[in-house]
Amino acid sequence: MTDLTYRFAPAFQAPTGSAIRELFKYLSLPGMISFAGGYPATSFFDQPNLAAAAERALRDSPVDCLQYAATDGLPALREQLAALMARRGAPVAVDDLMVTTGSQQGLDLLIKVLLSPGEHVLVERPTYPAALQAFRLAGLAVDSAATDAQGLDTERLAEQLSTQPRGSIRLLYCVPTFANPTGACLPLDRRLALLTLAAEHDFLIIEDDPYGALRFAGDEVPSLLALSAQVDGAAGRVIHLSSLSKVVAPGLRIGWLIAPAAIRQRCVIAKQTVDLCTAPWAQQIAALYLADGALERALPGLAQGYGEKCARMLAGLEGLKEVLEVSPPQGGMFIWGRCRGGVDATQLLQRAIEQRVMFVPGGAFFADNPDASSLRFSFAAPSHVQIDEGVARLRRSFEL
Ligand SMILES: Cc1ncc(COP(=O)(O)O)c(C=O)c1O
């Protein structure tokens, strides 16, 4: 008999998978309405233009689509992404940027290249769970920094850092614009304060920005990357990740990473052992889609569409204000909430599933001391009718 007792790597001895992916099994229950995953609305996928780009890519550049490509990405796509960054107020050279298989891969490559087991990273409290999972599987110590309705509380962060030797925190990971899970957008003064802290305490910042283009209220705020040149000692400390997942389609798996040359070159080497290159056909489709201006044409409608869904959801949740407080976002896909009276969101979810509605209990988003009453709703995927019905079901879950 073959011995099936394997010797797993330490991080996989007793691994815990994503709490959000665990919820997937309930999605197939008949009639379920999900406010759980951060999925874009399928009705917003620009299928005609993507189909045209896919067809044109294969017809006009079959070899680029079907052959292996350079690990850092097809030049045609990198040019388009550099132009996109310029439109977002952060001009970069084509060579400053590499294509990744979703921005999730960018994070994974950075962890491989920059950090060793046991080193300390800082995350927002709460933060994106797949980042927590990636840090933990890499054997890193994850510390968390306080946030409020505007995002990272930089005054408290300054106090926290002042108690530690300079350099003991190697890196801070944050989603400063329409955060997952809180939807918060960090104001300009705090962005500048954060960059100053990075310079003073000698840490790098990973700015994860998949949602920044989906603003439906308030004024634009420059990215940390764009601001880093203005703050003494901060240039070169911001590594920027972004993605087409939320604005075009996650099925393309196109993300990108912008980092100083020494870091980027090492990420390219790390990527060689992960997937050799991001699917070239998907890259070519993305390049043609962007070159055609299709994303620029689609963005205003996307932001408006998500803004309307968010407004609809907030209007519905207003009726639950005795039992639930929520933070209205200015963009992105999420509403963060907190049950009043110490109601446990995981127990609430059990009742909600019986009513055929889902959300994500907040515990999964905390590196430590989870807030059991918190929860995250995504308003992005359900239709207006489903939002109304889903909120009515939530109401019943609260036994109102
Ligand atoms: C903050 C954040 N970063 C990264 C990702 C992953 O994006 P991608 O599909 O580009 O890998 C997500 C997806 O939900 C996210 O919310």
Note down, in words, how this protein is organized:
The chain is α/β, with parallel strands linked by helices and 400 residues long. The protein has two domains: 10-46 and 296-399, Aspartate Aminotransferase, domain 1, CATH 3.90.1150; 63-293, 3-Layer(aba) Sandwich (Aspartate Aminotransferase, domain 2). The chain is built from 15 helices and 14 strands. The strands form three sheets. It has an eight-stranded mixed beta sheet with strand order 2-9-8-7-6-3-4-5, sandwiched between helices. Helix 5 (75-87) packs across helix 12 and helix 14 (345-354) crosses helix 15. The longest helix is centred in the C-terminal third of the chain and has 25 residues, at 294-318. The N and C termini lie far apart (59 Å). 46% of the residues are buried. It binds pyridoxal-5'-phosphate (PLP). The site of pyridoxal-5'-phosphate (PLP) has 13 residues, from helix 6.
Count of β-strands: 14
On the 0 to 100 scale, the average pLDDT is 95
Task: Tell me the domain tally.
Answer: 2
CATH-level-4 superfamily name of the largest domain = Type I PLP-dependent aspartate aminotransferase-like (Major domain)
